[in-house]
Fold this sequence. Notes:
Blueprint: H1 5-17, H2 20-27, H3 31-45, E1 50-53, E2 56-59, H4 61-88, E3 94-100, H5 101-104, H6 108-118, E4 123-129, H7 134-139, E5 145-149, E6 157-172, E7 182-184, E8 193-195, H8 198-212, E9 219-221, H9 225-233, E10 239-242, H10 246-250, E11 254-260, E12 265-273, H11 280-291
Helix pairs in contact: 1-2, 1-3, 1-4, 2-3, 6-11
Amino acid sequence: MNITLKQLRAFCDVAQTSSFTLAGRRMNLTQSAVSMLVRQLEDDIGLALFDRVKRKVQLTETGRQLLPIAERILGDLREVIDGAADLRALRRGILRLAVPQMLACSWLPPVLARYRVLYPDVALKMIDTTADRVIETVRQGEAEIGIGPERPTPEDVQADLLWQEKMQCACAAGSPLAQRGRIDWADVADAEWILYSDAFSGHLERTVWSGMSVQLRRTTQVRYLPTALALVGQGMGVTAAPAYAEPFGRLFGAVFIDIANPVVERRFLFYTKKGYELSPAAQAFRLLAGQKNP
């Protein structure tokens, strides 16, 4: 059995107009073409749908029982077509994001505000998590796209550069370091460090501490950058943070200063599942996000 939507439409149009000719006008087909479609449908289901008596077309009892089902199928198809059109036009849809907590409360809100103005009917589901969890959240399908600092990327994840961000040293406003406009990594090698990301700590170890033959002796481990900045503001140590977090750090009494020798920059990337087509909502956000760098 190979019933087509065109056959169902012919059946419904003939039933509604009681005429093969009028149904043909609706479908932009000849009377004979409509008659053939109905006959094919009757042959496929093995039942007569119309009585053809003296040029009159009337539904059989079987036809009357099957008509609501056919109309419902065509109605569902129209909803699919209309829904797809709405998704393409961004009149509906869901934007599912995974973003580190600090980005979620600093860089991201202005982007989302602009997005909402452009696409007010798209719903938002945002997972604000740690930077180390962004990629896995995308891999598991909880978010369609993720934005975060560079991390080792598995083969099934696509990573595209959005921007690069200079890392700065965050220290307490009352610290002697805060009076200096620029420091070197050697100046804080013996400081109490507040570490908030295993991956970033490993990056510092590879790019900074190993070259200086330094091993951090006093550290405090937390999960989120805002927590690290809050502890820094209380004079409990220093941390390294992206420059975009400076306004947030000031709320906790943390001061950001340039740190060099070497200058360390972090790459922030757009993460998606490799081989998966982005929804229109995600495509529009990606375009907008690429225009809004810190």
